[in-house]
Design brief:
The structure holds two protein chains of two kinds. By secondary structure, chain A is of the alpha/beta class. Chain A has helices spanning 46-53, 76-86, 102-113, 117-130, 146-158, 176-191, 203-206, and strands at residues 2-15, 18-31, 35-39, 61-66, 69-70, 87-90, 164-168, 195-199, 211-216, 219-225. In chain B, helix 13 (348-385) packs antiparallel against helix 14 (393-419). Classes of the chains: A alpha/beta, B alpha+beta.
Amino acid sequence: MVIAETRSLEKVYRMGEVEVHALRGITLSFTAGEFVAIMGPSGSGKSTLLNLLGCLDRPTAGQYFLGGEDVSCMDDDALSAIRSRRIGFIFQSYNLIPQMTVVENIEVPLVYQGLSERESYRRAVEQARLVGLADRLQHRPTELSGGQQQRVAIARALVSEPLILLADEPTGNLDSKTGEEILLLLEQLNRAGRTIIMVTHDPDIGARAHRIVHMRDGQVANVHTSGVG
Amino acid sequence: MWTVFTAAFRFRLRRLLRLGLQSLWRHRLRSVLTVLGIVFGVCSVIAMLAIGEGASYEAQEQIKRLGSQNIILRSVKPPQDERASAETTRMIEYGLTYDDAERIATTVPAVEVVVPVRIIREDARHRTRRLDVRLKGTVPWYDEVAKLEIEPGGRFIRSTDMHNRLSVCVLGSAVARTLFPNHDPIGEYVTVGAEYYRVVGVVAERGRGSRDDPASDTSRDIYVPLTTMQERYGEIVQRQISGSMEMERVELHQVSVRVKDTAYVEKTAAIIRQLLERYHRKQDFEVVVPLELLRQAERTKRIFNIVLGSIAAISLVVGGIGIMNIMLASVTERTREIGIRRALGAKRRDIVSQFLTETILLSGSGGILGLILGVVIPVLVRVFSGMPTIITAWSLVLAFAISVAVGIVFGIYPAYRAAHMDPIEALRHE
């Protein structure tokens, strides 16, 4: 089942007089339960694509369907609602809110969905347990290791049961051992049915995905599908 | 604002408050310093208004004591001409006369009561104690018009005293206290000038009069029947002034006129003024209308309040700018947090309400602290300087409401700026 689909997506940035074509017609579709890696050199448009897939930005042209809805012309409020319900973000630098505890950080997407305090706390605790942080609920991010912080971020991405998980260099700030643990966790989540789209520049990490989308100059250069899945 | 409120509802107020407190607590010192501007602003609004209110209340009480239904005529010594002042012994004749009082009582329509008063400065003695007093010769209905209260056990001058020119007197409270510190003066005798008077009553102590104005201090008065005074002193008072003998002939020093209704006070005052001007060639009297003074005092108070209010408002605005400054810095500093929240589904209005809550918490807590200080300071002023202060409920409400309003007004721009950041840029922010 196709859950996310882009049709000749284009993105043009205006930087003063110059127009920068970051994306020049991207057509891709993602099926449920897929693990996709997006690779390419810097400036190839992979971050722009991730931002569009994550509904953080609107395309200049083309369409983007997420869960059957055309989100390419939604207004800011509607996009915010989509982000909190359908998308889970995992960032390279974790992006936890420093003054809040682990459980409060995990709760954030639920809070913006308007869930009751009790319900969002319950679900946040459950999610923390799933990523192995049940004993760190009241800690602040600064009291945790990098690997633990990324686990908090993953728990936060999962807590609203999103359609897709978007991971932007999820192991970029971690040593190889911890990075491996995080990758294993992502693979485990994928096996449990999560759709993961991951941006990376590391071919070894990309190789763990079912499908690798290579990008160059704002276009899809080639798509490589591995035997798995 | 509406969208912010609905968002606040959705986001749950308690959560918003907790979030705000969390962020403010993280920068405790900064929050406290920011709040100080509002604290002093609110405190100065309340304290200034309390002191102003106290001062004007005192002035108004003094005027009210004169009676808003009354018109007071006073004899005024006219400026002397050159020829007269060259003589060593001279006789000056001026002021209100018995005829004036009679004319006012009989010809001016709205007049209810006319109270003539003659005042002579004397010293009063009882055994070894003495005190400078004003001896007031007056009529039995004086106490009613001047709103004097007589201590239980005593009485004011009666008409029989007048008819028989009896040597009886009523003491002002300070006179009674000084001459008879240990016992009841009723029935005792006091010597005023060269004459003896039997004490028949004592005036009850009135609310503290102003010490700055001894003329309005009636506690050092002694009241005797006007007829008695006429007999004892005649109409001419001799005074020795710097080697020369001065003789004054003044029939009445003051005439209080009570009008039937306050509505007629100003018109009646004008009629009396005209009447007197017809019979007096010199300007040797003045007409005081307490009602006019009261209105004047109210106008002055209003201006005073406006001036104080605007000074205080300026300090609140300064405090508000301080808050805005800190909030703008905070927004920049937390750009990344804003980006994260937006990525995780925060709508613009969620961000607005988050930052607005913080500013309102800042200014509101400043308002509460200022409220406490603003109540404490006037109390301290009252205790230590004796200056009367009155804290009005409306000044508390006003000051607090303004502090919260300052929080909203100066919080809107930083909150708007936070909400309109590009989430992608914000996430990249270091």
